[in-house]
Amino acid sequence: MRKSNKVKRWMTVFTAVLLVCVIFGLMSMRKYREWKEDNSGIPDAVSTVSDGDLCRLTVTANCRIIEDEEKFAENVIKMYRENAFRSIRLSTDLGKAAEKLDIRVYLHRDDIREGNPVMRILYEPPDDEKEYNVIDDAEVYRMTIYTDGRS
Q1: Beta pairing class for 142-147 and 119-124
Q2: What is the pLDDT of residues 107-128, one digit of tens each?
Q3: Are 125 and 111 in contact (CB under 8 A)?
Q4: Segment (H or E) for 57
Q5: Residue 93 C-beta-side C-alpha neighbours within 13 Å
Q6: Sheet harboring 119-124: ordered strands across?
Q7: Which residues pair with 124 in a beta bridge?
Q8: Which of 10, 30, 122, 139 is the most exposed place for a label (fewest CB within 10 A)?
């Protein structure tokens, strides 16, 4: 009988350890997926506000540093034009695209709470009293990049 109790106790301990390992593994996989998304290097829009002809975007770079700011800005604008952000799909049901973009860029989603963006991108048409939009008239737009949150 003593041998049977030892086996039962050993099986209980083994089952508990196995359960803890499974839970730890699942939590680790979830954290890894979050870390991978936050460090993918693929920009993502986390919020958008349209105010008349102006669209304000908050974008995360999902990287530690933006090496080529102009290339990064062009990529974000391209993603806007193609509606290719992962977290947000821009509404196209109103039928009118924005005339101006004001994009604030943060390195990671958690940095948004801390305040200043690392970069600001303004994408504006010329001041010639004609109507333009970001989607159809990209060739006439000018892009202005401010770094370290200065505007």
Answers
A1: antiparallel
A2: 988 888 888 899 999 999 998 8
A3: no
A4: strand 54-60
A5: 2
A6: 44-51, 54-60, 100-106, 119-124, 142-147
A7: 142
A8: 139
